[in-house]
Amino acid sequence: MQKTLIAVLLAGLGASAMAAGGYTGLGTESVSQETLSRYRPQPIDSALSRRIQFMLDVRGAGGGMLSPDGKRLYYTSTLTGTPQVWRMDQPMGYPIQMTGGEDRTHLAGITADGKWLVILRDRNGEENPGLYLQPALGGPLVEIQHKPKVQTSYQFSTDDSRFIYYTANDETPDSYTVYRYDLNSRSKEKLFSQKGHWSISDHQPDGTLLLTKSLSNSISEHYEWDPKTNQLTPLLGQNEQVDYSVAYGPTAGELIVQTNKFGEFQRLYRYRDGKFTPLSPELKWDIDGFSLDKQRKRLYYAVNEGGYTKSYVLDAKSGQPLALPKLPQADHISLSPADRSGRYANVGIDTATSPSTTYMLDWKTGKLIQWRLSSSPEVDTSRFAVASLEYYPARDGTKIPMFVRRPAKCDPAPCPVIVDFHGGPEGQSTAGFSAYNQLFVDAGFIHVEPNVRGSSGYGKTWLDADNGAKRLQVVSDIEDAARFIRANWGANGKAPKIGITGGSYGGYATLAGMTMFAGSYDAGVAAVAPSNLLTFLENTAPYRRAIRIAEYGDPVKDRDALIALSPINHLDKLKAPLLIIQGATDPRVPVGEAVQMHEAAKNKGLDSELILFADEGHGFSKRSNRVLSIGHTLRFFETHLKGAQTATAAAK
Questions:
Q1: Local structure of 550: helix, strand or coil
Q2: Is the domain 2-10+23-54+387-651 a CATH 3.10.100.10 member?
Q3: Is the pTM of this model over 0.90?
């Protein structure tokens, strides 16, 4: 079957279409200034801009980190238009801005003595952040490390407030070295260096590290590193190709492990002396993550129930559930530690009709404390469309889940439809609040978010269904969404017009829907999208290449499948208008992917637009750029989907 599909997709492709591609490298160095200027974003209509601006001012009140004495809250917010660090000196107090400028800046940690914040700062979406310190009451940043083309990632700070542990790929671009920074001497020390995508999962007071070596987004190996001997002891995952998340347990010689090794779904276990003992009940849903407080007294975990989140807390030693205060009904309820003492926990509440709100649970008093308010100036969020969980059939009969948001009415009917594919591919679209999705609903579109095979949250068979060449078996899920909608959502004898969009892998899905499955969709907007899987894998940042090969396929072993699955090789089939949006500094999907797709389309006389943001990477973070990227997406769909509806008979 697989070879047959490859043969069908390869049929008729010329040798030039199968070539590796016509660009090399990534970032602004790989594209000319003339190209950046030619495809720079143009202004949008002022009324459309105002609609988007109002929605961008709708903000949830997310969680944060409490100071060690519990008297201050530190958090990251986009209030200025770019992520920056803020603090509040009392619940519901006045927010004080700690960092500024246009560079994306995030809070990473607080030292145990409360004197220093640990800050991550990136530039222009390059995803090469630097690591900094800032006095807890504010002031200039003190650089620990910020190097061009190097990812520096915070891991933890020690209980004596002397050391900051971090990783960086500054020795070789595809591997991460573990460093320790001394706050007293302001000097760094290299602790561990081996080839691989290494990070620190946990640590012991004596400096022993629990190290993770990631082989893909869902396969990892785990080791214990002894600082006295520099020896690495294998613990879990070696030669297994299994998904593990690991932390030290409350007693010596014990690990808390999340894995799907023993069943279809992720589950929590206590691991000791080579034996796994279940901690969470056996469910037909995935555990979506866990954490322990600093004292390893409480174990927090979340369950992903088909795109809705429920959270629980256990006594880490006994495994018994702990009572929680009564919480409101919500699409997502999340819990996590909020301070080093273990006394407080973040409790996040997310519903479809109000921006997310986070409370602090005081375990000592049992009370919920609200530090921040969400905001929705001039926007009535109570009218927001509630996502309904629905399904469409794939051609092999598999039920594909999708979240659907509908306008209150369609005039004239039927409403045009936007099918929005998530990234990853291992991501998942979920229920809950979304001002972005509401923009489409307000514009008169039905907004649909499928979770096609390859998405997370539905068990490992579903997750692994699209790995490598297996994608040939399920990529048609993209077309089947449009087939179902066109056949079933018509009105007045007409089928709806359908647009397709998405970012990253969702952008790839968009390009595939517009080319490999041409005719399924009436217009497409692809953001930060791979167009040729061979050139994408050859030019993506070295630190991502091995991780992505494990998902998409090997450029040598799976070459035919990658060629067959590359939208650029199916351009001759393109029938409907296409808009491509890309950040030039993107380290994941090189800007060349967008340029080569657009220019190949234009050379064939096809209807294609291209927008390049010179100061953005894998996604659009600056407020002005977000307005333009969203605005052009809406403008494009309103132009191409709100004309005369296609008759049902003609559509079939």
A1: helix
A2: no
A3: yes
